[in-house]
Amino acid sequence: MKLNEIHDNVGATKKRMRVGRGIGSGKGKTAGRGVKGQKARTGVSIKGFEGGQMPLHRRLPKRGFNNIHAADLNEVNLGRVQAAVEAGKLDKSATVTIDSLVAAGIIARARDGVKLLGVGDFSTKLAFEVTRASKSAIAAVEKAGGTVSVAFASGVSTRGKAEATA
Question: Tell me: the pLDDT tens digits for 139-153?
Answer without folding.
Answer: 999 999 999 999 865
